[in-house]
Amino acid sequence: MKKISAFSVLALLVIAGAAVYLASNFDYTQLAAIKWHSIAAGFGFVIAQTLFYALTSKVILSGMGYTRKFADILAANLISQIAKVTITSKLDMPAKIYLNKKILDLTYPAAMLVVALRVFLMVFATAVIAGVLLLSVPEGRSLMPPAFPAAIIVLSIIGYLILSKTDLEKVSVRGPRLVRRLLSFAVRTNRALREIPPGKLMAAFAILVANIVISVTFLLVLYYQLGYRPGVEVVFLSFTVSSLAGFFSMIPLGLGVVEASFVLLMDGFGYRPEVSSVVILVKRVVWTFSPLILSLPFAIAKGPRFLSAGRRRSAGLEADAGVREVD
Questions:
Q1: Which range is most confident: 95-109, 117-131, 255-269?
Q2: Burial class, 307, CB count within 10 angstroms (exposed 0-12 / middle 13-18 / buried 19+)
Q3: CA 181 from chain center: how many Å?
Q4: Closest Cα partner for 282 from 43, 52, 8, 78?
Q5: How many CB atoms sit inside 10 A of residue 58's CB?
Q6: Nearest Cα to 141, choosing from 152, 133, 129, 151?
Q7: Between the CA of residue 274 and those of 37, 129, 277, 284, what are the distances in Å?
Q8: What whole-number distance in Å separates Cα of residue 94 and Cα of residue 58?
């Protein structure tokens, strides 16, 4: 019998606690007020985000010297969305790397760089936006001491400079598995940041900021549907801070952490938890299952052909790269 790690137990407790908190504040009458056209709008927003994510990958790949068809990049992004609904971080990241490698005819290290850099840029964009809003928005300044958001911005910039200006490939750290995984992620990101031109990085950064705007727009649509008019900056602030909390919790998809953090922050700004819990949970459902609806037909129709072609084309690349991969 496989031993359950302490982190898995803690993660389950956190998710369970968040579920209890959200369930105790969930108002089904508010849920009934949300119209189907709002859900349809969310589906459209997910399509836009999917296209933007694929565009981000294309920009990163072009910065690495690869020219790939946008349709193939979109295929890799769409099919990898299936891994998300497993709520398993061990499957999500390897699936994205594997599909990028096979479909886009990349070496394994190159596929890892694309995935790692996109994750890093998304977290970096979210952290910078959250820090700026916490400092500039009156509601944000009252949320916590100014030193904290300032530290978020400074540490984000320092982290970027370390990862982009230093060589971490020779660093060796012994410690818990989680530490080794984080170092491995940092090394991959470091390599990509040193290889890709600054202009390409800025373009990818701008696209990912647009993706954050799309998420916030949908949250605003839901609030407006329920008869509330929160400030754009308040929703922006709550969403970015809660997204950071979800990422650094290391829980797959930030499940429970993002939702509970968002509700607590909006409550601090004067918006009822009963409303915010409905808004953020509807967003979670739409953002989780819409990509699955988009990707399943595509995976059934295109997946086998792309994967078989990718296996044939990449047969010699692994030997050239000296990389051994276990499928």
A1: 255-269
A2: middle
A3: 17
A4: 43
A5: 23
A6: 133
A7: 22, 27, 6, 16
A8: 19
Q: pLDDT exceeding 70 applies to what percent of the chain?
A: 66
CA–CA separation, 35 vs 222, rounded Å?
Answer: 9
- How many Cβ atoms sit within 10 Å of the Cβ of residue 301? 10
Retrieve residue 202's tokens: 């800025």
The end-to-end CA distance of the chain, in Å, is 24
Element (H, E) at 107: none
Please name the residue ranges forming H helices in 106-197. 108-136, 138-143, 147-165, 177-195
Record the tokens describing residue 317, joined without a space.
Answer: 């690349």
Left (φ > 0), alpha (ψ -120 to 50) or beta: where does 271 sit? Answer: beta
Q: Is residue 216 within 8 Å of 243, Cβ to Cβ?
A: no
Distances (CA, A) of 256 to 159, 211, 268: 27, 21, 18
More confident residue, 150 or 30: 30
The amino acid sitting at 263 is V
Question: Which tokens go with 141?
Answer: 């300044």
Query: Which of 112, 217, 202, 218 shows the shortest CA–CA distance to 164?
Result: 202
In angstroms, rounded to a whole number, what is the distance separating the alpha carbons of residues 235 and 24? 22
Per-residue burial over 204-219, b if 16 or more Cβ lie within 10 Å, else e, is: bbebbbebbeebbbbb
Question: Which residue do the tokens 């790269």 mark?
Answer: 321
User: What is the C-alpha to C-alpha distance for residues 127 and 149, in angstroms, rounded to an integer?
Assistant: 9
List the structure tokens of 116.
Answer: 């790692």
Q: How many CB atoms lie within 10 A of CB 123?
A: 18
pLDDT, tens digit, for every residue of 45-64? 999 998 998 999 999 899 88
Residue 323 parent element (H or E): none
